[in-house]
Amino acid sequence: MALLRKNIWTLFILLFGGSLLFLIAISYYRWLNINESYRLKQESLVDLVSNASHSLFVNQEIILDVLGSELIKDPEFTDTVKTKPLLDQLLALNPAIVGFGLANPQGKLTFISSNLNPSRLPNLLQQQASRDSFQRALESNSMVLGRTYYMGALNEWVIPIRKAVRDENGRVLAVMTAGLRIKGASRFFSNDIHMDKYNRVTLLRAADHYPQYHSSEGADMELAYSKPVKAEAMQRAISSLLKKSGVSLASLKETESMVSFRIKTNDWKSVGVARFDKKYQLWTVSEIKLTKIYDDFFESFFSYLVIFGLGQLVIYRLFRLIASAEDQRRQDLIYQASHDPLTQLPNRGYLSMHKEEWLSQENPPEFSVLFVDMDHFKSVNDSFGHEFGDEVLKELAARLKENAPSQATLIRQGGDEFLIFIHETDDKVLLPLAKGIITALSRPYQVEGINFTLGASIGIAKYPLHGTDLDSLLRASDIAMYEAKKHKNSVRVFADEMQSGYLHKLVVEQQLRKGLDNDELFMVYQPQIDSNGKLYGVEALVRWQNEELGFVPPDQFISIAEASGLMPRLGEFVLRRSLSEMKQAQLETGLEFHVSINVSVRQFMQANFMALLLDAIEVSGLSKVFISLEITESLFIEDLDYILPLLQQIHDMGIQVSMDDFGTGYSSLSMLRTLPVDELKIDKSFVDNILNDDAARKMVQNIIAIGKNYEMAVLAEGVETQAQADLLSRFGCDRFQGYLYAKPMKPEDLKTFLCNCKGND
Predict the structure, then answer these.
(1) Tens digit of pLDDT for each residue in 340-375?
(2) Which residue segments constitute the domains of the chain, with CATH numbers given?
C-alpha cells in the first residue's frame, strides 16, 4: 500500500510538473504573440501616419511654392506689411493653415493673411523660435519645418513651414511661410490617430529631437513642445533601433525602413515602431506603454492558471505528446536554420547564433578566420548547370572537413565561400594549413564522368589584431582573400595596406554619387567606319572628371557603380545624354548615323527599363533605326527566360542589338542562335594580337565566320594600325573602330569630324 501511494504521488508530481511546463510554454508564446500583435498594429499605424504626413507636407510645399511665385510678381512685395486677398482665399480653402505670410530675406513679413495682427508680427530672423528654420529655409531648396511653438499673433500652437522663393539664378527673393494648426477641429491631424490612451504617436524632429506633433489628448502643450525628448530615452531608443535592424542609423534614414525599438528608463517604459522621412527629416514614432502589454499578458496568464488548476490531470498526456513533438520540431527548425542543407555545414545563421562564444567572453582567446573562396566556380554552374555545381560543392565540403583541424569551426558563408574559425594566430601554423587546404581543393574533381580542376584563394584575419567584432574580422578576411585572388591559388594574411584599395573604392563611390548630382560626368563618342571607309556610326562612352580625384577611368568607376547600386542612375544618364547629343549632331551636320550605347546587366534587369528606354527615345527625337544597344555576353547567363523576350521586343521595334566583347564570355553557339542579335563586336584583346598570334587570328576568323553564318554584322574594336585593318578586311570584317580612325571625342569635336566626313563624301 505504501509503495502504491508512493507511485501515485510520484505520478501526481510528474503530472503537475508536466502541466506546469505546459503552462509556462503557452504563457511564453502568448507573451510573444501579444508583442507581435502590437508591433504589427504599430507598423500599420506608423505607415499610415508617415505616408499621410509626408503627403500633407508635400502638398503644403507645392502650395507655398506656387503661392510664393505668384506673390513676388507684385512689385510691392518687399514694402511694408499688407494683407492679400489671395492669402485669405487660400486660408478659407485650407483650414489646417492658421495663417500665410511672405517675408523678405531679412525676416520681415510683407504680405500676410488678414487674420494676422501686423502689430504683433515678429521679425522671423530675429525671433528665437523661428530664427533657425527661417535661416535653413534661406539655404534650402526644399520646404523647411520649424520647431512647433506658440504663435502669440494668433493665440495658436503651430508647426511653421517655410519655403524660399528664388529667381532663375537661385537667388532668394522672399520666404513663403505658413503655420499648420495642431489644435482645434481643423487641425492637420486628429487626436484620435493613436489606438487608445495607452498609445501615442509622435512626429519627432531628427535634428534636435523636439516633438513636432503629439497625438495624445489633453497634453500640456507647453510641456509637450518646449523641450526635446530626454537624452537618455533618445539614446536608448536609437540603440534599440540599431540593434533590431542590424544596420547603421544613416542606413535607416536613407532607406526609410520601418523598425521597432524598446525604451526603459526610470520614468518611461515603452515599445514602439519608427520610420524616418528623409525629405522632411522627421521620425514618425508610435509607442505603447509596457504596462499595457503586461496587463494584456497577465489577463491571459490568470486565465491559464484557472485552466491549469482545473484540468491538469486531463491535459497531462496531451501536453506530453505535444511538447515532445514541438521540441523535436523546434530542434529540426534550429538545425535547418543554422546548417546548409546541401553540405550539412553550419551556415551564417549558425555563425550569428554562436558568435558570442568567440567574442563575448571576459578574456576571449585569440583566434583566426580563414576565408576560403573557389576560383572560377561560377563557370561550372554556367557551363554544366547548378545541379552539377551542387555536387562539386558537396565534394568541396568533404575536402574541407578532411583537411581542417578537428577543433576548427567550418561555416559555409554562401555560394562557393567558406569560413574556418580556428584558435590559432601563428603564421607558421596558419600558412601551411591554408596552403594544404588549397592543395586539397585544387586536386582534380570528377563529377558525372567529367574531370576538371578548380583553384582556391584564402584570406586570413586574426582576432583581435585585425578586428574586435565579427563584421570587422570578416571584412578583413574578405579583403585578404581578394588580395590572394590576384595571385591565384594563393593565401594572404590581412595587412593594413590592403585596406587602402577598399577605402579607395568607398571614396570613389562617394564622389560618384556627388558627381552624378553635380553633372561631372560627360559623354565622348568614337566613330565607327564601314568596310568602304564611310562613317557608319559612333559608340557612346561615358567619362568622369572629378575635382578631388581628377580623371577617373571608366573601368574603375563603372564596376563600383555596379556594386553600389548606382548603375541604373548612371545608365539612365548615359542613355538620355547620348540620344540627345547625337540627335543634335545629326541636325547640325545633316548626317544620319548610328549611335551605339552600352547597357549594363543591372540596368537591363530594371523592371522599368523598357519604359525608360522609350521615354528617352521620345524625348530625344532620335529615330529608333539609328539606335544600337550594346550588351555583354554576361547578360545572357543572368536570366535568359526574362532577357530573351525583352530583347525580342527591343529588336522588333527596330532598335539594333549588339553583343559586345564577343568571345570573352560564356555564351554558346546554340544560345547565340536564339538571340535577336544584329552585330557581334570583336574584343580589342583579340585585335591587339591579330598580327603576331595565331590563336588570336583564328579566334577573329571564327567570330567573323559565326557572324556571317547567323547573318550578323561584325565590328572590330581597338583597330590601331593599317595592317590590322587590312587583315580584318581580308577576313570579311564589316565595321571598324579604333585610334586608326579617330579617338573618342567630345560632341563639339565630333561635329567637326562629321562635317569633314560629309565633305569627303
Answers:
(1) 888 899 988 888 888 877 776 655 678 999 999 987
(2) 56-181 (3.30.450.20), 189-293 (3.30.450), 348-495 (3.30.70.270), 505-760 (3.20.20.450)
